[in-house]
Amino acid sequence: MRLRPRRLAGKADANTHKPNVERPEVGRSDPALSQEIQVSVETGAAVGVAPLDDDFLRSIRIDQSYSGDMTGVKKPLLTVPVRKPTKTEFVRVHPDLALDCFMVELKTEGERYFVSPEVAPFLGELVEPVRLRLCVTRQGVVFLWPVKLPKDERRADAWRSSAAEAASLGMHHWVRIAADMNLGAYQPYVATADLGSPSWPEEPFPKVVQIALQDRLIRGEDHPVVQQLLGRA
């Protein structure tokens, strides 16, 4: 005699009392619904389904030609870094706008200060003559490149001369520079593609320099940086 397995109490048979519920097929969608969702996502108007023939929503929906540019808005130039180009960015150097001045560099603090000609003799060999070159990146970031000027020495400084040559090259081409330790100089690289024309700032060059040096200018012997370098503070 064959024994039937006993059914546990409280558990219904999987084939009995099962409601007949129609499940949606995977991947099946309503063409009209898909169109509404696609238009909504592409235009960025709203998340979800919106009637395409609604006059109110159509009146406030962002047009597909929207590029993110806000017409009538101008970004003022508030910050101008003083630095060398990084090894990963292509830059252009303005062919005409430059300023020769004295710079003192605090390498431990990672800071640069600019010294008036009247104060420079107090610091002696601690100051560097530099040429501030107006530069701009492909993204339109404006900065001043302090290219060190050659000193009166018998042995030429390859770092100084190669930086000056790279800056001259950047007047007519998009370039990036990298420090080549084996070469003992900066190695420039010229972009092979047409990267377009540089977007120079609308502000006049004196205003750009003023923004860059507003907190980095040493005009007197009593400046804290001068006192620190001379061991007086």
Characteristics of this structure?
233 residues; alpha+beta; 2 domains; 5-stranded mixed β-sheet; two-stranded antiparallel sheet; 6 helices; 7 strands; 21% helix; globular
Report the biggest beta sheet as strand number plus sense, adding barrel if it closes.
Answer: 5 strands, mixed
Strand tally? 7
How would you sum up the global shape? globular
What is the mean predicted local confidence, pLDDT?
81
The SS-based structural class is alpha+beta
The percent of residues in helical segments reads 10-25%
- Which band does the percent of strand residues land in? 15-25%
Q: What count of domains describes the coordinates?
A: 2
Can you describe this structure?
About 20% of the residues lie in helices and about 20% in strands. It has about 230 residues and is α+β, with helices and mostly antiparallel strands. The protein has two domains: about 30-60, no CATH class; about 90-230, no CATH class. The strands form two sheets. Strands 4-3-1-2-7 form a five-stranded mixed sheet, with helices on both faces.
Short account of what is shown:
By secondary structure, the chain is α+β, with helices and mostly antiparallel strands. It contains six helices and seven strands, in the order ααββαββαββαβα. 21% of the residues lie in helices and 22% in strands.
